[in-house]
Amino acid sequence: MPEKTAVIDSYAGLRLPDAAAKSLPWITVKDLLWFLYYYPFRLLSGRLPRRMLYWIAGPLFQLRFRSQRKRAARRMMAFPGVGITADQAPRIARRSVSKFAASEMDNLLLADSSLDGRICCDGIGGLDHLEQARAAGKGVLILTAHFYASRIAKRYLTKLGYPVMTVRVQPSSGAMTSRLGRRFLYPRYAEFLHRVFRDEVYVHQPDCALRILKRLRSGGLVNIHLDGQHLRKAVEWPFLGAPWRFPAGYFELIRASGCQVVPMLATGNGAGVRIQFGEALETIPADGSDEFAAANLPLLAGAIERQIRDHPEDWSKWIS
Amino acid sequence: MDILNRLRAISVESLQLNLLEDELRGVTRLSEIAGVDSMAALAFVAAVEKEFHIVIEPERLELDFIEDLPRLAAYVEARGEARYKE
Question: What is the CATH number of the domain that holds B20?
Fold first, then answer.
């Protein structure tokens, strides 16, 4: 299939050099776990009830990601703006790992289009805000933070007739820690992620901004994670009480397209996702791109800060 | 200045290149004078639209088309929006 080939080719540039790969072991426990995830768990995902999958995966993830969980609790203390106390942090970190487990199980659901009908929604609010923004005719940038339920929410929205393009960073083959992992698992990992997202554009692609602009000008919907990584130019601004670098390119896109920006909060999981749209943000016009970013960053960052403060365990950046 | 030359001049300004007018003669693709990454392409599109008072249609927002200066010049001309600033 041409689509599959294109995805694997586009990942080629992110593969580590052979010299680096030769010093790796043939197989590691981590890559064995990846293998179990892609194959036995994937087979189970279509047969078992969602909640049972979460129940199985939860303790396994708590064990596997125990060091990340401890790091997450420490990280929470580094962001005083979230308002998490030292007593609360380990509990929130534990809940965050459980949600991480559920989102990884949901990825298995998302990767198989025949299972789309099994995504359940517990409630969707503010759809009128999205409709109003879309009616303006210049496209809508759906603003989110990295929340575990965002992927499942976007698939549900697609089912409802609101297809959303996702802007994302490609993972490198460094995620795999063995030779076998890089040679055998990595291409499958890339293909798997493509099936999870389907409608996506990678930030490193030279035509990334044009593809986003094209979608917006066609009146479409594009999801950006404002708390994501940047490649070229960043704008620094306090975020949750700590310094943070935000991608400047998104502001250029908003300025060039004149699109609406609508915050979306997604919580829950595939067994019951909850989606809430906020009112479109009133961006402040400015002449230059730097001035536009400076004028509007507090507005956009503030919108996702509120979401993280209200739902700290749903923010995946503690763990990843 | 004809549209093609104006596009060349816009590319230098929007991509912040240190090039003289002489060095732009005969340039037909943006990639001949600069590495065009995602944001550079966007900056160039925004500058072209501002200069010629046009909005490039979504179906034309392809890197291959945007980079091809003679094709882009023909498109701008066909839109009938080009206004010379002497």
Answer: 1.10.1200.10
